[in-house]
Amino acid sequence: MPVTVPLSPRLHRQAERIARERGPSDPQVYGKAVKEPARNPRRDHIIGVLGELGFASYYDLEINASSNQPDSGYDFLVEIDGEQIKVDVKTTQYENGYLPVESDSVQADLYISAHVPNAESFKIRLLGGAPRDIILDSPKQSAEVGDGEYYRVRQPDLSPLPAKSSVEPFTE
User: Under DSSP, is residue 21 helix (H, G, I), strand (E, B) or coil?
Assistant: First the structure.
């Protein structure tokens, strides 16, 4: 069952700051061919961070706000029912009905689908998740925007979110 997570104005400002610090907004540096003039890499960064903040807020976790670490392929390292799990939150502003995961970067154990209507939104919808094996068994399709191929898991095929009480920050 999807959940809606409200974000405070403070967390929204934090998302804008993290997005600005994490990555360039120039499409050439961004590393993706921008086929649509309406695409805005800076806005896309903000939308991605909003999804991460929604997940972090829902599960009472800390977001990795570091801008000087390379992308590890996952956003959170957590314990779910005592097992160490790498979680990657995939956030989109489109009502496209699927969870997209770049086919060349499947490194997390669990992928969470989040929806944010726009970069100004204060409500994040966490739609569900899919473990790595489901991602890898899903069909690949060419990107609708940009380059590359994506695994796509249909929204009705997503697993429910883990119970709040079962997710904790991983501590060594």
Answer: helix
